[in-house]
């Protein structure tokens, strides 16, 4: 075996570890992925018929306020000046999201000032003032009042979870942002944009190093290759970014996830919805939102004859589905604590990333966490002989 380090999973966490290990620590790194492409869920590809760049695992918008992460990612790609904005279609009328003064005034057919709008929402939220909401429905009403909650949040959340919000724990939401200005920028971060030549070009550049050996279609748990679990065990340090419950053969039970079914369609029109993302918050529409990919890159000279859209249907994941968002029930949290104990006892293996820690991570968080792992665990091990645990 030539590798000094084996990285399981080529998502942004694994790629960051591999890139730093090769460039900063001068190590030979093998990075394996069971999929046939690198990049994990941030992977994109050009749709065959139209050439429009499609995000295969759902929309990925890069944003961060972390200076270190921003400097780091700019080594591999420039970013466009894309600013994410979302709209929502409620009862055949389109409103700006997140809920802002524009949404409120359109919804109530009014011209409230910021102070008037704030007073109105406070009054409506007062319906459940002083109570301790036990479910998501009551919590939503207490946060923003019944009218806005029922129009924009209730059924959208119900569809996301395939569960009536009355049966969901209040803890799923801490706050529902309402802006008392007309600002409808989706993210508040200092930096935002999309990689100029697309995600896959960025991700491939991270792995483009003579000391990084990328092996695709290679599952860590399958036998018969150089970097299988049994081949590397005890031989070489491993950074594992696959599902933590899978690593321990589900010994403490399955952790639960939500998944999304993505339905892609090419339509013979130049522009279907005039925006990259349209939410569908009503109960009678089965999907949660529609993406239209051409709007992520208005500067590109895409065909005018067709457009690519993707409908998102959310549901609980079963074995074999793509795990997307941790459900994180109290039972899951108990299991996770047990898996963490097991992980701590696993010599020479570090667990990281979204699946390895059972935590939803935005891209910038995955990259930031990977940089910390290199600083705090890998560097001391490879330069000072500290053990890996
Ligand atoms: P990631 O899941 O990307 O990669 C893990 C890799 O490990 C996969 O490629 C998998 O195949 C591989 N693997 C697992 N088990 C293996 C095994 N046994 N053997 C070999 N390989 C194995 N973030 C953001 O900043 N803005 C956004 O808009 C979005 N949008 C978004 C939408 C959706 C639907 C999701 C699910 C996620 C986002 N994200 C996001 C989050 C973003 O995708 C996230 O930050 C990265 O997935 C984290 O990277 P990881 O490397 O941790 O996991």
From TrEMBL:
Concerning its family, UniProt says: Belongs to the UDP-galactopyranose/dTDP-fucopyranose mutase family.
Identify the keywords attached in UniProt to this record, alphabetized. Answer: FAD, Flavoprotein, Isomerase
Q: Which organism is it from?
A: Kocuria oceani
- Statement: the UniProt record of this protein carries the keyword Cell wall biogenesis/degradation: no
Required co-factors: FAD
A single Gene Ontology MF term assigned here is: UDP-galactopyranose mutase activity
Supply the gene name. glf
Question: EC no.?
Answer: 5.4.99.9
Q: One Pfam match, by short name?
A: NAD_binding_8
Q: Which InterPro entries match?
A: UDP-GALP_mutase, UDP-GalPyranose_mutase_C
Q: What is this protein called?
A: UDP-galactopyranose mutase
